[in-house]
Prior knowledge:
By secondary structure, this protein is mainly alpha-helical. Helices cover about 70% and strands about 5% of the residues.
Amino acid sequence: MRVQVLCALSVACTVEWVGTHLMGWWDYRLGNLPGWVPPGHASIALVCIVLARTPAPRWLHHTAYAGVAAWTLWGLTLAERPDYSGVFGLLIIAVVRYHPVMRPRIPWIIAVTVPTEFAGTYFAAYSYRPHDVTGLLLLANPPSGLPGGYVLVDFTALLMAAVVHRTWQRRRHSKSATP
Length: 179
């Protein structure tokens, strides 16, 4: 679990840097990466991992997926600022949800991250730009693709943690096997 949280932290901080500096998806109020962002991502990862140990109620699965689909549809049709990111987010969720570890985690990821993102934009800690640097990806504030982005971060961290843990175990066993 510790390795997964550390991997989620490194992936999320990388996404933060790429998202703000290279892709131009969002801006922080003070123009820098605030000190609360890394511990915030680590906390979200830890909470989702722990909550996923408890089976999510069926209503949470249905509500989470229906809510993300409705948010995406709203972004495509009714939003003040058109938002295409939800389509990518839904595709990510649709593919990743078949992984046995991610299946119980995804509803919790959605339940934890969506209110967090709405609070962050409501209190103006950060804001999303209307489009990325290419001008092709249009975004609302907050964009509907966020749940899929968090699922992708968590899934990448899960795969990365497996590799890191396996490598660590091999190194540890090879050192103890040498006389």
